[in-house]
Amino acid sequence: MKNRAIVIMKKFAFVVLFVMFIAISHMMRFPAGMEIGKNFRLFFLEMAAILPLMFILIGLFEVWVPRERIIRHLGAEAGHWGTLWVILLAMLQVGPLYAAFPVAALLWRKGCSVRNIFIYLGAFTALKIPMLTFEVGFLGWKFSLLRALFSFPVFIAIGFLLAADLKDRPFAVKEPE
Amino acid sequence: MIVLALATAILLLLSFIADRGKTLAGLKKGAKMFLNILPALLSVLILVSVFLYVFPAQVLTEWLGRGTGWAGIASAALLGSISLIPGFIAFPLGAILVRSGVSYQVIAVFITLPLEAKYFGWKVSILRNALSFTGALLVGLLMGIFL
Fold first, then answer.
1. What pTM, to 2 d.p., does this model score?
2. How large is the average pLDDT for residues A78-97?
């Protein structure tokens, strides 16, 4: 038990030091530290608003969705429908790319194919609906439609390329420990 | 955002009604995964915060914005969410940032990479980002032709 506490403390040491640095900066009115703290707060809030929810959903998915179902629908034999499903899943998501990695790890554990995992990541970067609405607002419909149209074959090709490249090599999506 | 919160709450409730033990087991698993990635995630966020202080968005835009042209615009949009630099910082910079997008996003990729590598390993992560970037340039070229 004590060992585990030490391990956890070690893991968070950098974060704790940073928070202390920001706190001291505020006390001493050190402008650089205060500015960095402000940046960090924005990033932290974005993360804290989304990731806990994501991990709740991942946990529920983990216990409720049987592996056989994912293998059947998203696995190596699933064909075009599997690809379509992962793209839809990616489009519905919110948040920065790092929110997609744990989902990719989950899909992998449940038997999703390598190709579909990478297509999922590609769709996440290119076709997320929250991002599209942003983009339409700033750059217009025509721009967004064209870009979505062009990026579609690109990330599908990337999925095929990476899957082909990794076919004969040991590959696994790991769960960080 | 609100949709996500609502959906999570509803699913959680349904799951709880259906099977309490299973739900708790799922939550525990989720929490464990979250705590495992949290230190790395926070460290990356700290590094980005420091990075953005040393190179504020405006300065970066000036440096990198020169001569990227149309390809830059499209790739910036395609690569938009590879970046850790979220919309609330990126989009207010508007057209200028979008024009300098390529280079800005390249830096952002390097910052997200350690997290991706935790899941996929370094080799695959670098390969995937290199391919994505090449793909973005391709899309950028096409956009330049059609817009």
1. 0.80
2. 89
